[in-house]
Amino acid sequence: MDEVVQSEHGLNIEDLSERPGFDEQFLGVRVDVPALEGVESVLLPYTHFSVLLRLDKRLAAVTALGIDGTKLIDIDRSGIQWRLDPRLRADQQTGEKVYAGNNIDRGHLVRRASAVWGETREEATRANVDTFHYTNAAPQAAKFNQGMELWLGLESYLQDNAADNGRRLVVFTGPIFGATDPVYRGVQIPLKFFKVAAFMHHGSLAATGYVLDQTPQLADLPDVPRPGALDEAPPLGPFRTFQVPVRDIAVLTGLDLKQLTAVDRMPISATLPAGPVASTWRRLRSLQDLDFDFEPNG
Q1: More confident residue, 111 or 274
Q2: First to last CA, the chain
Q3: I want to staple 289 with a disulfide (CB 3.0 to 4.6 A). Which of 72, 116, 254, 284 is the partner?
């Protein structure tokens, strides 16, 4: 029998049997975790969020998080160790082997600070610990710069300025697997990640989409890294953040995002509903570069 592990706060962090997971009615209208057809996956519930894990990649296809901005609690991360989810076999997950002895970070897909809320400190602490499961991580470049800061700041910005339903926000995040992704230590390293935010605006569901690009400067390399076993960590480049049509994310990931594509508030999505993928992406260098068909502060 496995030893029961206790966190510094006294929580049984190995017993995940009662985790409620993402609340589909969080915004007052039903918004489901996007489905992914034709790929073997498993839905794992945690506190305030769920992870749809792709068993073929051993990484998440998408994470789904509900953020209640009125109940956020400031709890630090000290003493919390990354861990495997005991509900799955170790060989079904990406663990410490990928991140050891290199410049690759365990990138939180569900942002830790966004999940740490609740009616009680114990509830928030449980969410804090839950975000440190490897099922909620993906390999990302260790170098932080403005692009990554923008990526992390999007949730706070939208929660504070765009959501009018008691400052509630739903965020879907995940990798965009591509043909040029390198495979390192048996795991595909996604070069791009997506985020789709859903919220209520004047009583109606609204959504916006974003992409984070950590593609290396491929022109500077003797060979473009492609799938195959690599002994050395792939050279991941600077983070770039884009605002993109939700429909592009659906095409690139295979996720069912029809509900959110229909309520996309990026103006170009309405004026060019069938444009080529990536043709209308908007590079973000600051939050002032965001483009909506409404005033966020209005």
Answers
A1: 111
A2: 57
A3: 284
